[in-house]
Amino acid sequence: MSTTGSSLMGEWRQLLARHARVSEALERELERHHRLSVTEFEALRHLAESDDNGCRLQQLVDDVHMSQSALSRLIGRLADEGLVERRSCAEDRRGIFAVITDEGRRRLAEATPTHEAVLERTLR
Amino acid sequence: MSTTGSSLMGEWRQLLARHARVSEALERELERHHRLSVTEFEALRHLAESDDNGCRLQQLVDDVHMSQSALSRLIGRLADEGLVERRSCAEDRRGIFAVITDEGRRRLAEATPTHEAVLERTLR
DNA sequence: GCACTATACATGCATGCGCATACAATGCCA
DNA sequence: TGGCATTGTATGCGCATGCATGTATAGTGC
């Protein structure tokens, strides 16, 4: 009785429920097995997909759904763990490239099957 | 190029993007115009829909997507603002009923058009 | 070259969250 | 009835977040 189905409200509730179900499971499993949060995983994946020069933080903000400050600290944490390197940009010295390291690729590769398994299990 | 579309991964990314788009807009507008967070609005709405005896916190946890501790504090904030009353339960004195107040119904009624307008604008 | 504005990232601060735990009330079983 | 696990809620704590702001660099008009 809580899902009207056709109304906007019902659709939004379904989206909320689905998002909560999947992201809670992802958070739990990724944290338990790989010590990664969902946002950390997402950032690593985007970095792995970008070319080898890495990615301007500016650009990552658009991909990962997160404030600029949150992203800055996220990259900081990943850098502290050695999963990412910060490289300052020669052409525009305000800019910072985040580049995934080999260790970062390794951790991402380890975590990806877990991620997929959770999606398989919870998304439908 | 970031949305594969058919894969689980693509579907999950779409869900993330949609959720972020809607909830960021909701958060902003509800906060700006009615000083309510999205979770506060959701809780009020659930309480308004439940019968007049209110709702056990325990039960609300299942409806709102939130930990028990977060809900306890959320109800605390709403109670501080006079939008909700805590009533202890006679049959089981561990239990707490949260009951929406008239003021709570008023605030909810004020905020609902904003909520609907944002859904209309961002959900599709 | 000099002021002024805009952009990119970092950081202080307040807040909400989840986890673990504390506490109170209940149920159960000997 | 007495002990013990269970359930419902509150709270201490650490952490990630967003907002506002700070700092450095870039661009632009004069």
Automatic annotation (TrEMBL), chains A, B:
Transmembrane recorded as keyword: no
Recorded superkingdom: Bacteria
Coiled-coil blocks: none
Transmembrane segments: none
Database matches in InterPro entries: HTH_MarR-typ (IPR000835), MarR/SlyA-like (IPR039422), Tscrpt_reg_MarR-type_CS (IPR023187), WH-like_DNA-bd_sf (IPR036388), WH_DNA-bd_sf (IPR036390)
Keyword set, alphabetical order: DNA-binding, Transcription, Transcription regulation
PANTHER family per record: MARR FAMILY REGULATORY PROTEIN, TRANSCRIPTIONAL REGULATOR, MARR FAMILY
Protein name: MarR family transcriptional regulator
Organism field: Paraconexibacter antarcticus
